[in-house]
Each structure stands twice: as C-alpha cells, then as structure tokens.
Design goal:
Elements (H helix, E strand, L loop, with lengths): L2 H26 L4 H18 E2 L4 E3 L3 E2 L6 E2 L10 E2 H7 L7 H13 L6 E2 L5 E2 L7 E2 L6 E2 L23 H16 L8 E2 L2 E2 H9 L12 E2 L18 E2 L1 H20 L3 H22 L18 H9 L5 H17 L3 E2 L2 E2 L29 E2 L3 H9 L3 H18 L13 E2 L4 E2 L5 H12 L1
Helix pairs in contact: 2-13, 3-5, 3-13, 4-5, 5-6, 5-7, 7-8, 9-10, 9-11, 10-11, 11-12, 11-13
Length: 446
C-alpha cells in the first residue's frame, strides 16, 4: 500500500469519526440543559406520585395496597388505581425505580402469570403463560383484560377473546432490566410458584400467536387480542406491527440473558428469531412512504407510534431509514402529526374517514386513542426526525417541554400536566407517567 493511499484511508476514517461525534453531540442537545433538568425532575415527581406504598389507600373503592411492597400505577391523582404491567415496564429505564421495588413487582407479575388455561365468565380465554394486563392492589388478583377491575367479569369480545399481546413482552423487559440493574443472574433460576423465572419468560414469549411457522404476531376477528394497550379501544386485526416490534426487542433481550448463563443454543435461537423479525417487519408493514401500517387486516392504517418505535429500535437502516424519518419530519412540518409537542396515533391526513381516525373504534373521533394527542411517543418521534433534521427535532421537543411547563400539575389543583392525552376540548387523566417517562428515557439515553 502506498503512503498516499494509506493517508487517504486515514483521512476518511478521521472524517467518519468526526461525523459520528457530531451526530452524538446533536442527539444529546435536542433539549437544552435547563429543559432536560425540568423533564428529569418532573418525571421523578410524577413517578413518586404514582407509587402506592404498602398499606396505602388511594380510594375507598379500590382499597389498600396489600401486596406486601410498593407498586407503581400509571399516574398520580385518580389515574388507573391498579398496577399496570405495561405502563410500569415502559417507565423502568428512567432509572427512578429502586431495585427492591423492581423485584417486588417482577415477582408479583410472575406469580400471577397464568399456569393453567381458563375461560372467563365473559367468554374469553386466558392461555398458559399469559401475563396480566393489570393487577389489583387490594388482593393481588390478575386482570388479564382491559376495561374492568372485576376478576370474575373480565373478558368479552369488546376487549378481546385473548389477553393483549404486549404485556408478555413487557414482562420480559421487566425481568431483563432487573437482571441488568442487579447482575443477579441467579434470580433467573429462582422458582416462582414452582417455575423458574427464565422459564416463565419463555412461556410469556410464546403466548402471542403467529401464523403457522410464522414469526409476526397475528390475530383474527373471531379470536382477536388487543395489539397494544395504548389502543385497546380500537379493533386491529391481521399481522400486527406493534407487538411484533416488542417481540423483536424481547428476543434480543432473551438472547443476551441466555448468553450470560452460558446457554449458547438458546441465545442463538432467539437471536436468529430477532433477525428474522427485523427482516420481515419492514417487508410486511412498510407503505410506499416509509410509514409502518398498524396491521394487515382491520385498521391497516399508517401508525405513527409503530413507525417511530421501529426507528428507535433500529429496525430500519440505510435509505429506508432516511425515507421514513424524512416523511415523519415533513408530516410534522405540515401539522398533520403533532400538536403542542404531543403525537397522534394516525396522521390527520390518514384518518379512515370523516367519522373516525381508526377504522374500528369504540370511542369518538379525536378522543382518547381515536385521534387525541399523546406525549408518550414524543421521544421516539424526536429521535426519528433528528436523524435527518436536528433543528426540527429540537423544535418538536421544545413544544413538548413548553406544554408541560404551562400545565405543570405542581402549580396547583387546577393544573394537570402531564396529561394522558388531550384534544381541542379537553384532557384526561392528569399526572400521567409515560407521558414524561418515555420521552425522558429517549432524551436521557441520547
């Protein structure tokens, strides 16, 4: 190799490294130091408001926390008075949950996992390995279906004939994060109700159905399960994007854990499954604009949340990644994606018709999950836009923070931000945890 050739290679290497450094600087500065500290403190305070300490009574209707240790519900004030697997798991990487709290909630979720299939009075089935949607605080009973706190009456076609497909993967995330936080690999082989934790994780992984010999999560009208709890009021069928994304992440987590306990065979199996999902998800769900469809059946509409999360998980690469991120950037600039820094499930231009955002919903258009605006996915969207346009991503992030500052619940009882979601007329569920924890996790990791 000539000296000139070697010098050129070194120069190119320096250039690439310097660009990488610039990307890191840009990503970490989506929020000013002041705004980041505000979000950090707000997230910590909301999570504290969401704690239910042992023996604490949060309402006359739902009783006291009799589970033996602290639980974390989806928010403060009158927000969802139970322990919800999904919201808690999505908030873990904030770093504000103690190891002791993690262990208790992980053990509770594992102990209430279904060890015997059964059919509810509502006619739905709870399959072997299913993880609760939420768990009551008074008696620790698992509620596998949305829409109720009644252990006996749970289920029914309105909320699915099988439990939501996301909670199994969030349970795996709970266990993975606990092991990562504590390095307590022995806990993976601890028996809970006679079954080792690692075996429970594998049981959970296998619950969400696929087509025969397939890997993409799949459901039908007759035996529908909710794809993702943040849209359990919508009917979405066929191949399902969001739980398939979560399945990809869980497969990678299981592979890592099996590597740590020297089970290379299992690690390779899950890693190969993850790679197959990474290949198939874009092929099955991408539309010509680079957006990911929520499904291939009912409500097969471009889904902002799945699209942004796919980018965040690293599912997309190269030209496909750039195309998707540019489209999200352009949608934000056109005003079809966000409002006050909060994000819609479906772009306003992609509504199913004039009467509903999703094809099939039990809520009115522009309310709740059917067209209201949510802060939970804002960090994912900012991350995606920043890959092609840092300044525009900063603008979205700033709008999000400004909205939180304006409505900060700590100002008094008449304030409620972070809200679960809102529309032009009203907002619902004040002091909502994932509205701040999920974006904070993104900004913190970047």
């Amino acid at each position: 190799m000539t000296n000139n050739r070697l010098a050129l290679i070194l120069l190119n290497l320096v250039f690439v490294i310097s660009l990488s450094g610039q990307d890191k600087i840009q990503s970490s500065s989506l929020l000013s130091d002041n705004d980041f500290e505000f979000l950090k403190t707000l997230t910590k305070d909301v999570l504290e408001s969401s704690r239910i300490y042992p023996g604490q009574k949060i309402s006359d209707v739902y009783g006291s926390n009799n589970t033996g240790d602290t639980l974390i519900r989806p928010g403060g004030r009158s927000c969802y008075p139970a322990f919800w697997i999904r919201d808690y798991a999505m908030s873990l990487e904030s770093g504000f949950v103690t190891k002791e709290e993690q262990k208790h909630m992980l053990q509770l979720a594992a102990a209430t996992q279904c060890d015997q299939p059964w059919i509810t009075n509502g006619g739905s089935m709870v399959p072997l390995g299913a993880v609760a949607d939420h768990i009551r605080i008074d008696d620790g009973k698992p509620i596998f279906y949305p829409g109720t706190y009644d252990y006996i009456a749970q289920g029914g076609k309105k909320w699915g004939m099988t439990p939501p497909y996301c909670d199994q993967f969030f349970f795996i995330h709970m266990a993975y994060y606990y092991i990562k936080s504590t390095s307590d690999l022995q806990f993976l082989t601890t028996e809970i109700n006679g079954v080792r934790l690692i075996d429970r994780m594998e049981m959970a992984f296998k619950v969400p159905p696929t087509r025969q010999n397939g890997v993409i999560v799949y459901t039908t009208d007759d035996f529908r399960g909710v794809d993702f709890g943040f849209r359990d009021a919508e009917s979405i069928t066929g191949e399902l994007c969001m739980p398939s994304l979560l399945k990809y992440k869980s497969a990678m987590q299981l592979a890592e854990l099996f590597d740590k306990i020297n089970r290379k065979d299992k690690a390779d199996t899950y890693r190969n499954l993850a790679m197959r999902l990474k290949d198939e998800i874009p092929r099955v769900f991408s539309d010509k604009r680079g957006m990911f469809l929520a499904s291939t059946g009912k409500s097969k509409q471009a889904d902002v949340w799945s699209t942004a999360l796919a980018v965040y998980f690293g599912i997309l690469e190269g030209d496909s990644l750039e195309k998707t991120c540019r489209f999200l950037r352009d949608a934000y600039k056109k005003g079809t994606l966000a409002n006050r820094g909060n994000i819609r499930h479906v772009l306003t231009t992609d509504d199913y018709n004039d009467s509903t955002a999703w094809e099939s919903s039990i809520t009115e258009k522009n309310s709740y999950q059917n067209g209201a605006y949510w802060g939970t996915p804002t960090g994912w969207v900012c991350d995606a836009i920043a890959k092609v346009d840092v300044e525009t991503a900063k603008q979205l992030a700033k709008e999000y923070i400004d909205d939180l500052r304006a409505g900060d619940y700590r100002k008094g009882a008449e304030f409620g931000a972070p809200w679960e979601c809102y529309n032009s007329k009203s907002a619902q569920n004040a002091v909502y945890l994932t509205t701040v924890s999920c974006p904070y996790i993104v900004f913190r990791q970047k």
